[in-house]
Inverse folding.
């Protein structure tokens, strides 16, 4: 194997940061970028609250047009590693793209607010990580504020998320009483000194046997940490790197992103434990990332930057080999040789055209409308396909029709186009004769995007009636049942998706259990296949 290629791929780390809004994802990302020298000033990422998406949400034009700003990627170098951070937007920007981004990552960092514990959006994103079996690292943030008991936090992660935990360090107090962490590997205390107003704190390493320790952290804290360590060493899981890499054991770190406490040790440990680009399954078996032949798959499409041309940017994750700008590639689904046009990457703040990229990297290419989510790009002569990207369960539903029935053709054309780009999902009602479509979205903003785009690009006004369904399940074995005669509650609806799969829409979890109990053998899934 070409040693230069091997070296480049080996040093890549591609991961997503997941969290519930406000847990500190942006602050932590910013600190990472600072370490990497990719930005040189705190606040460059977050800026003021009014424009807090300064670096990551780079498609400002799109934002002004009211279209959801989707996940972005940032690349930087740190201690010989080439790091790709995939950002997963939260708040109202939350969409299917957020989930799809996780398909391009080799591991995930889960940021948890120490005073809140596991929150809703973390749960959802976590499920996707588990489905992929990627390693998950936990950063318990905001220890400089009053936090929940750390043992309770770990228990909650284990119980609610179903993953074992291994605390790599352990906090000493929290809030005003936060004194630092105990590093279990070094068997040393890293002390934290609150510095009234200065945001960055200095961390100092003190040996557990240092005679001054109790005066540094306080007599009571000293006794507590000695007890805690004994408890941890006796009761917690053993560290097992294989379990970490399989995604069943999560190394946990306590710290405070804002004061930059515990961030560097976290980054260093994380980079050692997290894998270089992973092999991926394809229709012709597992593809090794070190294979010299370039291959990639499309995990996201950013639509219609220019209204007149309907142009798009397709984001692809390189899975093997090296990408070279001038080389010919092969688009498997389109059965076509081509050159990828205007390949670009985001390096911290700058979006730049690139000449080469390696397995693990994410590139965006100009798409004249030929790529779909999940498509495979290889070198001429190779025709394998990477396993598709699952369809994620929407959580908001509305019945949508066009106000002017003479425009139904444009309406269908527009809506189908938007479905192909993966921004929304549509469903029809079999056996009813209804012609309206049911639109399902992961984040509410997508409804506005749909309305805006149909009006602006297809000149169609729509009527939207919100439906009260909250859960959707794909029927895995529809042909084992007479679907017209399923025993379901009156407020459960049978629908078909874009690929003619059968699904059920439910208004509550209770109704899901009811359907499963009353229809023996019925198999329901939260993820659909395209
Ligand atoms: P997000 O991307 O996960 O949504 O969270 P973000 O980093 O934007 O952080 C949310 C809020 O939490 C911010 O405060 C941020 O300063 C604060 N924060 C992040 N990490 C820590 C930490 O370790 N300790 C403390 N005490 N606070 C932290 P904000 O008031 O919403 O914004 P700003 O006015 O500080 O910009």
């Amino acid at each position: 194997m070409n040693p230069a290629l091997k070296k480049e791929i080996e040093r890549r780390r591609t991961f997503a940061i997941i969290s519930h809004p406000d847990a500190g994802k942006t602050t932590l990302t910013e600190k990472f970028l600072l370490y990497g020298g990719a930005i040189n000033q705190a606040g460059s990422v977050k800026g003021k609250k009014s424009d807090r998406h300064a670096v990551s949400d780079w498609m400002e034009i799109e934002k002004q047009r009211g279209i959801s700003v989707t996940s972005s990627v940032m690349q930087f170098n740190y201690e010989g590693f080439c790091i790709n951070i995939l950002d997963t937007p939260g708040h109202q920007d939350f969409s299917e793209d957020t989930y799809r981004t996780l398909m391009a990552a080799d591991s995930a960092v889960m940021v948890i607010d120490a005073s809140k514990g596991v929150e809703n959006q973390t749960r959802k994103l976590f499920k996707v990580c588990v489905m992929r079996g990627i390693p998950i690292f936990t950063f318990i943030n905001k220890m400089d504020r009053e936090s929940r008991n750390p043992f309770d936090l770990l228990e909650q992660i284990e119980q609610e998320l179903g993953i074992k935990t291994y605390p790599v360090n352990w906090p000493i107090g929290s809030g005003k009483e936060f004194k630092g962490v105990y590093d279990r590997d070094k068997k040393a205390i890293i002390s934290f000194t609150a510095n009234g107003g200065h945001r960055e704190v200095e961390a100092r390493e003190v040996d557990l046997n240092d005679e001054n320790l109790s005066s540094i952290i306080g007599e009571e804290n000293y006794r507590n940490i000695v007890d805690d360590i004994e408890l941890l060493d006796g009761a917690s899981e053993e560290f097992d790197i294989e379990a970490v890499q399989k995604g069943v054991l999560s190394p946990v770190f306590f710290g405070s992103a804002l004061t930059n406490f515990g961030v560097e040790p976290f980054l260093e440990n994380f980079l050692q434990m997290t894998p270089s680009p992973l092999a991926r399954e394809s229709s012709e078996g597992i593809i090794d990332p070190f294979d010299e032949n370039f291959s990639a798959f499309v995990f996201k499409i950013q639509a219609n930057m220019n209204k007149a041309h309907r142009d798009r940017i397709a984001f692809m994750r390189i899975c093997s080999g090296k990408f070279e700008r001038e080389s010919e590639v092969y688009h498997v689904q389109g059965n076509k040789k081509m050159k990828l046009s205007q390949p670009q990457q985001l390096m911290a703040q700058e979006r730049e055209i690139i000449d080469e990229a390696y397995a693990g990297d994410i590139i965006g290419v100009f798409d004249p409308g030929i790529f779909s989510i999940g498509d495979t790009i290889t070198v001429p002569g190779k025709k394998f396909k990477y396993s598709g990207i699952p369809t994620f369960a929407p959580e908001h539903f509305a019945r949508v029709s066009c106000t002017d029935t003479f425009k139904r053709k444009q309406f269908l054309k527009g809506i189908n186009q938007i479905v192909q780009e993966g921004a929304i999902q549509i469903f029809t009602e079999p056996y009813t004769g209804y012609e309206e479509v049911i639109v399902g979205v992961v984040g509410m903003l997508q409804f506005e995007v749909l309305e805006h785009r149909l009006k602006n690009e297809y000149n169609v006004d729509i009527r939207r009636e919100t439906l009260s369904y909250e859960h959707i399940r794909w029927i895995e074995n529809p042909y084992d049942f007479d679907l017209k005669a399923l025993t379901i509650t009156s407020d459960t609806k049978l629908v078909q998706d874009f690929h003619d799969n059968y699904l059920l829409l439910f208004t509550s979890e209770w109704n899901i259990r009811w359907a499963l109990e009353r229809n023996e053998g019925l198999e329901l899934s939260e993820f659909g296949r395209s």
